[in-house]
Amino acid sequence: MWTLLANAASADSITDCRAPVSDRASAERVVAGCSQLIAEQREAPQALLAAYFKRSLIYVQTSRFDLAVTDMDEVIRRQPDLGQAYQVRGTAQGGLRKFDLAIADFTSAIARDPKDANNYGNRGSSYLQLGKTDLAAADLDKLLALAPDNASMHSVRGSLRFMLNQPDSAL
Q1: Which of the residues 31, 59, 125, 137 could staple to 68 if both were Cys, CB 3.0 to 4.6 A apart?
Q2: pLDDT tens track for 108-138
């Protein structure tokens, strides 16, 4: 009987962990479900990886950046070639204002997926936070080479070029 109850609890955890997030209450249900799956350690390795990943995403969305970093550390330990894990951890590091660590993570994400324009924008934003405007501008150029229709980034790049006293390249 206890096995049946444990299996039912595990099934609920899987359902909760896989549920969509629409508000704070649903986010907390998903975190609880993923946490239970992780604690039980009875699921397949890929299911556990997905639970850590999803919980980390919710931690980022709810500004619990330290917890997000811890979960992404585990994802990266289990699957070091997953570029999205470095992107999420970099975002969390930025939330913690650890911009050097964020830059390192975004650089790792770029190495794994050099065509993901978001990583250049994220790294460029981190460079800006550290006052490294030339490096930020270079990343914005790379982002726009990959996503030329990104109007908001064209505006940001123009402002940055103007700030760098490069008005001719601001357009």
Answers
A1: 59
A2: 999 999 999 999 999 999 999 999 988 998 9
Distance CA 97, CA 39 (A): 30
Q: What is the C-alpha separation between 33 and 11, in angstroms, rounded? A: 9
Angle at Cα 96 formed by Cα 95 and Cα 101, nearest 5°?
A: 100
**Tokens 């794994």 sit at which residue?**
112
Rounded Cα gap, residues 53 and 59, in angstroms: 10
